[in-house]
Specification:
The chain has 69 residues and is mostly beta strands. 12% of the residues lie in helices and 46% in strands. Strands 3-2-1-4-5 form a five-stranded antiparallel sheet, with helices on one face. β4 and β5 form a beta hairpin. The mean pLDDT is 94.
Length: 69
């Protein structure tokens, strides 16, 4: 069964977004392609920084997808 976590986009660095969750804070954020977030959430690139999202995590601990919170 998948786990759903609150996630927040800290900032964009080039074509990558830095994401925090309860498992990865600002000292060790997850990096995710901006294009993936735009496609999965429907948010425009300029609206991503600071956005609150839901991260769906697989049983293997991998980020399966992102959704709007």
């Amino acid at each position: 069964m998948s786990e759903r976590l609150q996630a927040r986009v800290l900032l964009l660095v080039g074509d990558q977004a830095e994401i925090t969750t309860e498992h990865r804070d600002h000292t060790d954020p997850e990096r995710v392609p901006v294009a993936r977030l735009v496609e999965e959430t429907g948010l425009a690139r300029e609206d991503l920084a600071g956005a609150e999202l839901v991260a769906v995590v697989s049983d293997a601990g991998e980020l399966e997808r992102f959704e709007r919170a």
